[in-house]
Structures are given as C-alpha cells and as structure tokens.
Amino acid sequence: MQTSFTPAQLADPDTRESNTILRSCVHCGFCTATCPTFVLLGDELDSPRGRIYLIKDMLEGGKPATEQVVRHVDRCLSCLSCMTTCPSGVNYMHLVDHARNYIERTYIRPWPERMLRRALGVLLPYPRRFRMAMRAAALARPLRGLVPGRSMTAKRLRAMLALAPTSLPKSGNMQGPQVHRAKGQRRGRVALLTGCAQKVLAPSINEATIRLLTRMGLDVVVTAEQGCCGALNHHMGQHDAAMALMRGNIEAWTREMEGEGLDAIVINASGCGTTVKDYGFMCRTESGDLPAKAAAVSALAKDISEVLVQFGYAPTRPPTGLDVAYHAACSLQHGQKITAAPKQLLAKAGFHVREPAEPHICCGSAGTYNLLQPEIASQLRTRKLENLRRTGARVVAGGNIGCLTQLSGEGGLPAVHTVELLDWMAGGPRPAGMPAPSES
Ligand code: SF4
Ligand code: SF4
Fold first, then answer.
1. What lines the ligand 2 site, CB under 6 Å?
2. In this structure, which ligand is nearest to the CA of 73?
3. Domain check: are 338 and 362 in the same one?
4. What is the DSSP pairing of strand 264-267 with strand 218-222?
5. Alpha-carbon distance 303 to 366, whole Å?
6. Confidence of residue 255 (pLDDT cuts 50, 70, 90)
7. Which of 197, 288, 321, 353 is 20 to 30 A from 152 via CA?
C-alpha cells in the first residue's frame, strides 16, 4: 500500500511504525473472511482492510479523528484473527493500538461515553475498586430490565449489569504478595502475574496455577508491587494510565530478576500475556533504562501452558474421560500463536478434547468490548455458545478470564480455566462450577 506521510510526520516513532505496517499491506482482502465483525456486519469498513484504509487516511491527514473512523475502529475487537490470516505479516495490532491512542487524543466522545470509559479505566484495573463496583452491580442486577431506552448508553448499562456475577468468591490468602515454595526438589523460580479482575472474579485460577507450579518444583513469587498489566487502559487508548501500570510491573519484576533471578514470568490470562509480551515494543521510546527492562520482561513472559509443557506437567489422578470443549481465546491463538499446548495438556490429563466449529472467531468478550459494544458482543457470544454446544461437551475450558466470564453466566455453559482442570487431575480440588459427575 502506498503512503504519503510527510518527513515531519515520520519523525514521530509511532507514525513511522504505522507507515511501515501500512506499506506491508497488499490489500488482498484475505483477512476479511476471518474477521468477526465483517462476518457479522458485511461492511468493508468493518473489516481489517477497511479499517486499515480508514486509519491510513486519518493518520496521513493529521486531523482529528472523524465519527466514521471512530465508529469502525471501536467495533474492532482487537481479536487479531486478521493477523493469523494475513499472508503479508501486517502487524494490525500495533496499527490499531496507534489508531486508538490517536483517537483518544483527537476525538471528543459524547459525554456519557467519556464518563463510562473513564469509569472503566479507573475501576477495572484495581481489584479493590473492582470488587466494590461488582458488589454494587450485583445489587442493581435484578433491576436491569427496568433500565429504559434503546440508546447505546442504556444498552451498555444493561450489558454491564447482566455480566455482573450474583456473588463473588472469597479471595483466600494465596494471591497476596509472598513466595510459594517449591514442593520437593527445586527446579526453578518464576513470578506470577495475579492480575486484576481475575483476582476478584475467579481466585481459584491463580490458586490452581500456584499449586501446579509448586508441585512441579518451582518457587512462585507474587510481588507486592505488580498490578494490572495495563491492557484494559491500553485498548481504550488511555496511554498514560496504561504506561503507569506497565512501568510498575516492569520495575517489580526487574527487581526480582536482578535479585534472586527468574526463569519465567507466568501469566494465566492470555489477554494479559499478549500485552506483557509486547511491553518491549510499547516502551521502546521511553526514556532511561525502561526500554531495556521492558524488553527483558517481555522476553521472560510466558503463558502458563508454555511453562507447564516446559517443566513437564504430569497428572496423578486416573482419567475421568470427561468431554471438554476447548475454547481458544483470541489472545492466546492469534495474539501469542499458542494453539496446540493447552489441548495437548488437557488430553494428557485424560480429558476428551472437543473443538468447536469456527475456533478462530472471537466470543465477543475482548476486554471491555462486551461492555462497550454489547450488541455485537452478544451476537458473537450466541454464535460461540452454539458452536461449543454442538461439540456435545458439558464443560468449556479456556485460558482467559474474559472469555470464561462471557461464556458462563446467564444462558451460558459451565466454563473453567484450563489450569483448574489440570490441577484437579494433578491432585487439586474439583473446579467449582463443573457439572455434577452424574450430569457430565
Ligand atoms: S490479508 Fe494482510 S495484506 Fe491482505 S488486506 Fe488483509 S492485512 Fe492487508
Ligand atoms: S482485530 Fe479482529 S475484529 Fe479487528 S479487524 Fe482484525 S479480525 Fe477484525
């Protein structure tokens, strides 16, 4: 694709990067067939290729983003299915990240939307605030049918209340800052990102992860200073808030790396993993030693499935023979290109792994997408649930808390994290929310 940025525009490192990305697109359109929003809406401007053109015009023009560009970029799930399909290696992720940041700086959204995005940005990444917000939402949940109107604000409010769990699980003491010592012979030392929303919604995921890793002989460090990975703010174009969170994590893990050392930084929410693996890129223009530290953190970041394969996961219980539908989170399959490991681990643990049709299509969760674009998200959820049900399995396994929340709940399926099933088969508790043995 030809571009016509001026030398002054190309002095900006983000624009320079986007120029390179744009020039690698040969507008073949292969990506359109696997883009969930194009599949649903059939509008070229809701396809990767259409968005690439819109972003190119916006950046070249150097003018404030228009309502049209914002509408179509907002509808993008950042699922990165287009990156898996693209034969030319177009880095759509970095392009759309730049576009979102540009939109945030140049476009004034209607005030209810500004307030909502701001609220999400200051609530979701902080577990205490998030817990309080979830409690309030749970109280208001029964009234969601009374929220009047067909406006986007009303739809978003109803979607938020519908997604709020009726109760929150108790958070035990495993997720707090501490070092969980290896059982038996010590084989290594890893840090665990305990995350933000996941910590509140499903502490059992971190608990299962810690049990699995310590059983395999790994010390597991949960540092006090780590927090949200920054993805939630980053994907809403809230650059400064995202950078502050990233910086905190990078400094915390660097201290561990320079202290007793780390063999890996383990991440069990694939949305967060994709972001941490990109810290090096995102911090490349920061001052001081942050770029080097960020690159070192990214190089050590691993999804839990990679670590379990590396250190040799071994089940200890006899196989249940339970059918499990494996839901491939977009951030894991498209963002991190991890496709086989979770299924191989589940099979090793004795589960019959069933794969749904259209595994490349997003479930509609996509960070805050199901709150900001409830109609498209709901259509994608229905489509995904239908495909999962057709496998005949009564339980879904996946590697990202956002997907699990999206797929379970009202009208959904029991959905657990892959590590919960693996931990169960290695001596841990039966995951809560699983169908009773007689039902499965
Ligand atoms: S598949 Fe790749 S090269 Fe082809 S239009 Fe899409 S992004 Fe461009
Ligand atoms: S990231 Fe997903 S929704 Fe966005 S353009 Fe690519 S395939 Fe479509």
1. 35-37, 48, 51, 76-82, 92
2. 2
3. yes
4. unpaired
5. 18
6. very high
7. 197
Mean pLDDT of the chain: 94
- Span from the CA of 43 to the centroid of ligand 1 (angstroms): 16
Kindly identify the ligand whose nearest atom is closest to the C-alpha of 28: 1
* pLDDT of res. 437: 64
The region that residue 288 occupies, defined by phi over 0 for left and psi between -120 and 50 for alpha, beta otherwise, is left
- Among 125, 140, 163, where does a domain finish? 163
Q: Is the CB of 356 under 6 A from ligand 1?
A: no
| 32 and 70 together in one domain | yes
One domain for residues 252 and 320: no
In a domain? residue 365: yes
Distance (angstroms) between ligand 1 centre and the Cα of 90 equals 7
CATH of the domain at 284: 3.40.50
User: Are residues 331 and 358 located together in one domain of the fold?
Assistant: yes
Domain count along the chain? 4
Query: Domain range holding 59?
Result: 7-106
Q: What is the DSSP letter of 171?
A: P
Does 97 fall in a domain?
yes
Q: 294, 403 in Cβ contact below 8 A?
A: no
Of 282, 309, 336, which closes a domain? Answer: 309
Whether residue 322 is found in the same domain as residue 362: yes
| Position 145 pLDDT exceeds 80 | no
Instruction: Specify whether 97 is located in the same domain as 115.
Output: no
Q: Which of 69, 78, 383 to mutate to test the pocket of ligand 2 (most atoms within 8 A of CB)?
A: 78
**Model confidence over 317-334: pLDDT tens digits?**
999 989 999 999 999 999
Give burial (CB, 10 Å; 0-12/13-18/19+) of 389.
middle
pLDDT of residue 254: 98
Q: Are residues 71 and 39 in the same domain?
A: yes
Decide whether any atom of ligand 1 lies within 6 Å of the 62 Cβ: no
pLDDT score recorded for residue 440 = 44
Interval between CA 333 and ligand 1 midpoint (Å): 18
Residue 440 lies in a domain: no
State both tokens at 101: 């940041």
DSSP secondary structure letters along 60-103: HHTSPPPHHHHHHHHT-----HHHHH-TT---HHHHHHHHHHHH
Same domain, 65 and 121: no
Is residue 316 over pLDDT 70? yes
The response to whether residue 23 sits with its C-beta less than 6 Å from ligand 1 reads no
Residue 435 located in a structural domain: no
CA distance 247 to 241: 10
In tens, the pLDDT along 38-97 reads: 999 999 999 999 999 999 999 999 999 999 999 999 999 999 999 999 999 999 999 999
- Ligand 2: atom nearest CA of 78 is 1
